[in-house]
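Example 405, ligand iron/sulfur cluster.
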Amino acid sequence: MVITGTWQGRPLTISVKRNCLTVSTDDPSQADVFSYDLEGRMWTAFIDGIAYRRGLDGKMVARWRNPGEERNRRWLPQDEAVSIEARAHRHIQHLYTAIQQGEAELRTPLSPQGHQVFRQILAFDPAHSMADAARYYDVYKPVGILPPDQYMAVVLQMTEGCSFNTCNFCTFYKDRPFRIKSPDEFRQHAIAVRDFLGAGLSLRRTIFLGDANAMVVPMRTLLPLLDVVHEVYDVDKLGGMYAFLDGFSGEKKPAADYQRLYDKGIKTVYIGLESGHAPLLKFLKKPGTPREAIKAVRAIKAGGIAVGIIILLGAGGQQHADSHVRDTIKALNAMDLDMDDIIYFSEILVGEDTPYAREAYQAGLQPLSHSERLAQGAAIEAGLHFSSEGGVPKISRYDIREFVY
Ligand code: SF4
């Protein structure tokens, strides 16, 4: 339901949906927009031309674009994030008071559901918000990364960490050993996540099985864990389950296994291929070979599951650039991708403390600039071909600095 009106001389729009409430106050030069989930958590805000997004852990990223520039982003220090949230809270408080006192003119009265969500938002004051963020850490080990199309998923940490943890550019799971939860422990976790999200569950679109490579879990262990997800969640209503499969030296599942996983609700498996150039994968200490990745993709797709393939632009610097482009094109073309699939181009971002930085320096690798990395992505894309029956996969950028859950 969308309600329009006027408040403090500015046009006002209140959108009450089955999964969120959005308030927008406009004027000719700018709009302030605030969105909340039904639990009352701030989700997004747009203030003074800057877009903010709050994660479930209370952290907040700000994004803006200056004319002629690429999008900028900055993770806010905690006090700044708290002050943005408090500002949004005050705004909603003033508006709701104005609605109740008839000072905001609404063309249609606010529905009972609308009143209920406003009350939820007002109960979610800064102290409640901090307690909620602390609860996130009771429920989760910090969620390391998700594919961009899964930022609105319900993450369930069926496994923790990465079973390989060897890649020299990756620091996501250095803080935890790999382990698979027992069905009982996983059930408790799945219930705790559901309780934590509360009414905010309605904003979530899919279920993502964490952490780094839940799909390496052997079938006899995996199937009972997927049954647990079905016990606790309405998987179909949430849009199915998604997961990473990273590295290929674990149990190799044939197409028949993927068909069973598809029947259990797995929709897409994301694979960090990084490159189709085998010597580069070796340098990156990525387990497995491009050949194994191609085989895995074919088995997954033959089982009816879509894939998301992640390519690391700039990996291996100038020295590997030509072979990286050439062999990545070859590998992607050998995967028979179609319109159900996604190819992500992700620029390598190397912290000084990563083994990659040290090893690239020792190997004398010359890094690619940002524009050279983008050109590398364009060169790979130009070499791809897809069948006319299958159609073209979605091709998109993947900026891990913008990850928020
Ligand atoms: S396999 Fe994936 S999650 Fe594991 S270390 Fe490598 S890049 Fe990181």
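Summary: The pocket of iron/sulfur cluster is lined by residues 162, 164-167, 170, 172-173, 212, 246-247, 272, 286 (CB under 6 Å).
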